[in-house]
Design brief:
Layout (H helix, E strand, L loop, with lengths): L7 E5 L17 H10 L4 E3 L10 H9 L4 E9 L8 H17 L4 E6 L18 H22 L2 E4 L10 H10 L6 E5 H6 L4 H7 L4 E6 L1 E2 L1 H9 L4 H6 L3 E2 L8 H10 L4 E5 L11 H14 L3
Parallel strand pairs: 1-2, 1-10, 2-3, 3-4, 4-5, 5-6, 6-7, 7-10
Antiparallel strand pairs: 8-9
Helix pairs in contact: 3-4, 7-10
């Protein structure tokens, strides 16, 4: 064991059980997810898509507590680059998720930008590059979101760079960070998405360490990724091909990422998210058990 990662709090998420939607017959039922995530040795979870887990705080508190689990974050989806006109509809979605996240004792809200390419059909919805005006809308909108979420719900937002969104590559991530106020907006660094889009997670942590507020741990299969990039495959179909693979068989190497995060000297969640939608219901648990064992071998 090369490092004792005492500042890293490891968890998992519905995503690692093939859950992408609030309700889908191909997904495992939520009680099974909770049972299995606890069985795999994790103590922290995320809420996943709003409506997948029970949304009544009293009921959900009981369900997670009796399995020895706690909630680290909720997740919201936003299209704030479209300007002030989308604020009200965005806030309606955010407020629902933020209230449940707060009521579960969590402190973070993971914010995912909207997709420029449809996750399932690969239809191009918008240009992949934002205009200067859209970058301004995105930056000011995220700052407003960070302010409102903290004022009303006591949560910190962490923006999640994501494949097929406008915050994806190293250049886009750095532009976004440079354009936003660190007091209001920080980053959820997803190691798999960042590698998928050509970024170096260790370098980002070492360069923008004060902006890293949260981690998602995943890896990509370089062989599948090369084919995905060469053929312009959308993210959803790429996941179905297995582009996100079980650690430690892909990139980036997670041990140096965790070591770099530990050196920041702050407490950080590191939530395992192996995108596996859709997947056979018996597949996630053995993967989760092996992944937890691997992370322990790294000191986490």
């Amino acid at each position: 064991m090369t490092h004792v990662l005492d500042r890293i709090r490891v968890g998992s998420a519905p995503d690692s059980w093939g859950v992408w939607f609030p309700d889908d017959p191909r997904q495992v039922p939520w009680p099974r997810f909770l049972d299995e995530v606890a069985e795999a040795g994790y103590s922290w979870i995320e809420l996943g898509p709003y409506g997948y887990l029970p949304t009544d705080p009293a009921r959900l508190t009981d369900e997670v507590a009796r399995r020895g689990l706690k909630v680290s974050a909720g997740t919201v989806f936003t299209g704030l680059h479209r300007g002030p006109d989308v604020w009200d509809s965005t806030w309606e979605h955010v407020a629902r998720v933020a209230a449940l996240t707060r009521d579960m004792g969590a402190r973070h809200l993971v914010v995912i930008p909207s997709f420029w390419r449809d996750d399932r059909t690969a239809e191009i919805l918008e240009p992949p590059e934002l205009t200067a005006a859209q970058w301004t809308h995105l930056a000011r909108g995220m700052e407003r979101l960070g302010h409102e979420v903290r004022e009303r719900y006591g949560l910190d937002i962490v923006v999640h760079p994501h494949a097929d969104t406008h915050i994806d590559t190293a250049a886009h991530v750095e532009r976004f960070l440079d354009a936003t106020d660190p007091a209001r907006v920080n980053l959820c660094l997803d190691t798999g998405h960042y590698a998928y889009c050509g970024g170096d997670s260790v370098r980002l942590i070492e360069t923008y360490g004060e902006r890293i507020g949260y981690l998602h741990l995943k890896q990509v299969d370089p062989g599948i990724l090369a084919d995905v990039v060469a053929n312009g495959v959308a993210f959803g179909p790429a996941v179905a091909r297995g582009v996100m693979c079980e650690p430690p068989h892909g990139v980036p190497d997670l041990e140096p990422v965790l070591a770099a995060a530990q050196k920041l000297g702050v407490d950080l969640f590191a939530i395992v998210e192996q995108d596996m939608y859709p997947c056979e219901p018996d597949r996630p648990l053995p993967v989760a058990v092996r992944t937890r064992r691997f992370l322990r071998s790294c000191g986490a």
